[in-house]
Amino acid sequence: DVRGRPAMQLKIEKLVYGGEGMGHSDGVAVFVPFVAPGETVAVHLDARKKKFARGHVQKFVETSPERVGARCPYFTRCGGCHYQHLPYHAQLRYKQEILLETLARLGGVRWEGPVEVHASPPFGYRNRAQWKVRPAARGASIGYLEANSETLCPADQCPILSPRLEDTLARLGGLLARREIPALLAEAEAFADGEDERILLGASFTHFGGNTAQALGVLLREAIPTIESLLLHDASRDRFELLGPGHLKYTVGNQRYRVGHLSFFQVNRFLVDALAQRATAQAAGRLAVDLYAGVGLFSLPLAAGFERVISVEGNPAATRDLEVNARTVAGHSGEIHVRTQDAEEYLFPMQERPDLILLDPPRAGLSEAVRARLTAIGSPEIRYVSCDPATLARDLKFLCESYEVAGMELFDLFPQSFHLETLVRLRRRERAA
User: Fold this and answer.
1) 67, 99, 162, 274: which has the highest count of C-beta atoms within 10 A?
2) What is the pLDDT of residues 251-270, one digit of tens each?
3) Can you tell me the distance from the alpha carbon of 417 to that of 401, in angstroms, rounded to the nearest whole number?
4) Helix 389-399 vs helix 368-377: angle between axes, to the nearest 10 degrees?
5) Over 60: is that where the pLDDT of 433 sits?
């Protein structure tokens, strides 16, 4: 029990993946949010285990000269951002250090080559947002959950959102404040196109009550005229109502992608083009396999260099978009074949050896079975796009028994947060070929 204990003085040694700073006290690692390396802080412990503890800052004894004021008034309360107290150039430096340290510590991968860092404009970058709604004294409030909590942090602004999405947040907040939404809205999600002009809006209600979906749709479209398509969910009946085409068009380079309400797409509107280009650069041959393909962000540019591209995606909603995108791809010479399958389901009967396998798995990374099958297939090159350095390290530890790292790039798709995207190029070792 740490209640009632006096604050301890702690020197912050470094930042670690997850958004916290770390220091040591009596041989125990102590993790604290919203600090910078070199700072000395008085820390109140919130939880203590045998080998580590977590706490929060009660007082800054010595602050870092790098510390800056946060742009967002909800910073440290809202659970979305972790680094607004650091200038952007420092965030990039720390993220590179965290990436390399995580790969070495968890995966035994000690990369001493260059890491090409792709920076983003630090604010206004997100093309997708999810908001929670909770009852309030006057109507209801919309915003984000507090860190590690189900408590709402009401928000009428969010500087990491694109202008269109920030405007959408404000308009939804106005509807709720004026009690113009007659049914109880519980959650909303918005996705903006590449031009930041039109949006997909999903709205989940505890119930529609006596209202029709059409009436709710009219209300929302009048308040938010930039809606391209609207998906309404009545949780009491677990029923969806679609008002509109169900998708919008998102331009990346010279390709236009159809993206539906339930499909995944990269959230940084400034770096998605660079990520697609670098992940598929100088890739050519007979066959490429794009695992976890989504709507085909990488499949379409891969088709310019390969006779065939097999795109594997387990989400049926995404593969519906992918099939349309594959038919309308601009300037490619190869064919794209879409498989609505999980990666394991596709890989195990596979007989061909692709010239390239491109991986973009979810945050959990690759399953043990997928890792083993990739090694057995023995493609001469694997390109791994990862959104979590911890699971990337675990997967590379296994893959590097047969492959060697040939290149590494960091894409800062999530400025102000601890999240980062990594592209790793793997080349089959000669002795494993």
Assistant:
1) 162
2) 999 899 999 999 999 999 99
3) 32
4) 40
5) no
Alpha carbon distance, N-terminus to C-terminus of the chain = 56
Ranges of H-type helices in 20-162: 88-107
Could you give the angle at which helices 163-177 and 213-223 cross, rounded to 10 degrees?
A: 120
The helix (run of H) or strand (run of E) holding residue 47 is strand 40-48
For residue 326, which of 312, 347, 315, 314 has the smallest C-alpha distance? 312
Strands (DSSP E) found in 178-246? 184-192, 199-207, 227-234, 239-243
- Whose structure tokens read 């100088």? 282
Q: How far apart are the C-alpha atoms of 212 and 216, rounded to whole Å?
A: 6
Residue that is written with structure tokens 């089959």 in the block: 428
> Is 153 an active-site residue?
no
Determine whether 170 is exposed, middle or buried from the number of CB atoms within 10 Å of its CB (0-12, 13-18, 19+).
middle
- Phi and psi torsions of 410, nearest 5°: -110, 125
Distances in whole angstroms, Cα of residue 62 to Cα of each of 24, 25, 39, 42: 16, 17, 5, 10
Biggest CA-to-CA distance, the chain: 69
Neighbour count for residue 257 (Cβ, 10 Å): 27
pLDDT of residue 346: 96
Residue 331 confidence (pLDDT): 53
Identified catalytic residue from 81, 153, 387, 400: 387
Query: Which alpha helices (DSSP H) does 203-290 contain, by range?
Result: 213-223, 272-280
Pairing, β 381-386 against β 356-359: parallel
Q: How many CB atoms lie within 10 A of CB 432?
A: 11
| 14-16, strands of its sheet edge to edge | 8-11, 40-48, 52-62, 28-33, 20-25, 14-16
Residue 76 structure tokens:
């440290």
Q: Which segments within 120-180 are labelled E, that is strand?
A: 128-135, 140-145, 152-154
Dihedral sign from CA coordinates of 119, 123, 127, 130: positive
Q: Which two tokens stand for residue 322?
A: 């992918």
Q: What is the mean pLDDT of residues 179-198?
A: 92
- pLDDT, tens digit, 9 for 90 and up, residues 48-106: 998 899 999 999 999 999 999 999 999 999 999 999 999 999 999 999 999 999 999 99
pLDDT at 364 over 70: yes
- With tokens 């679609």, the residue in question is 242
